[in-house]
Amino acid sequence: MMTAPLLRLESLSKSFGQVTVARDLALSLGPGEALGIVGPNGAGKSSLFAMISGDLRPDAGTVWLDGRDVTGVPPHARTRAGIGRTYQVPRPFTHLTVFENVLVCAHQGAGLHGKQAWSQAMDVLERTGLADLANTAAGRLTLLQRKRLEVARALGTGPRLLLLDEVAGGLTEPEVAELVEVIRRLHADGLGIVWIEHVVHALVKTVARMICLAGGDVVADGEPVAVLADAKVRELYLGGGPESGTAEEGP
Ligand SMILES: Nc1ncnc2c1ncn2[C@@H]1O[C@H](COP(=O)(O)OP(=O)(O)OP(=O)(O)O)[C@@H](O)[C@H]1O
Ligand SMILES: [Mg+2]
After folding, report:
1. 8 A C-beta contact, residue 31 and residue 64
2. Cβ atoms of residues 251 and 41 within 8 Å
3. Which residues does UniProt assign to the signal peptide (predicted)?
4. Regarding the domain delimited by 1-82+163-238, which CATH topology (the fold level of the hierarchy) does it fall under?
5. Which helix (H) or strand (E) holds 186?
6. Is any atom of ligand 1 closer than 6 Å to the C-beta of 52?
7. Which residue, judged by its Cα, is nearest atom 6 of ligand 1?
8. How far apart are CA 56 and CA 45, in angstroms?
9. What is the pLDDT of residues 119-147, one digit of tens each?
10. Cα of 49 to ligand 2 centre, how many Å?
11. What is the residue extent of each domain of the chain?
């Protein structure tokens, strides 16, 4: 028997007035696959995540998780079903500690209680390199630490599919390298990952497949180096210069 893809988007369409963020879009992700998404600002990347996580209802089309139609399923139930996401603008509870922030996600997102929630939260802090900061208030973290916490909060919900929205933006190069290591390890542990990122070289080090979104369409899909070399992608996204595609940072 064929196993169902972890995620499948079928004929997904969504417009905000004149702005089309998804146009009859199709995409499939196997269990444990890592996919990178690039595309110009306003391409519809974050909107796509919102449709996968349930924050945004598509105008038409279907979102399948493990072969189950989850299009009408509300966000909290999709979290329980195994979809964890970060937000482009981090959303920690600033007055809670790092540990408490992740514990809340283990409670609310994964439905764990007591010792199980506690050990899931500790495990996530270890995996994201935040264990030493467990008792620090989230509001006191540096940008890199906040980005790590955003990943940790998504992991706290116990996902099989992790959606990362620009977690490397604004970091220094050594910090990007640290974050790449964290995400590579999560992928090696078998997690399915979709990562939207303007820091393209971080994606290239992490994913085996990349798509480029523009105007609600998938304009390229394939091996990252090939996608970045694609003439349409270079024109749309990277400006077409000879140096493009190695270390681009979005605005
Ligand atoms: N709730 C909304 N209501 C109206 N328009 C929206 C809404 N959400 C997004 N848009 C518009 O849809 C388009 C795509 O937005 P989206 O945030 O998905 O882009 P993006 O690819 O994530 O861009 P960026 O790289 O800047 O994060 C933009 O023109 C945006 O203004
Ligand atoms: Mg976005």
Report:
1. no
2. yes
3. none
4. Rossmann fold (3.40.50)
5. helix 173-188
6. no
7. 16
8. 12
9. 999 999 999 999 999 999 999 999 999 99
10. 9
11. 1-82+163-238, 91-158
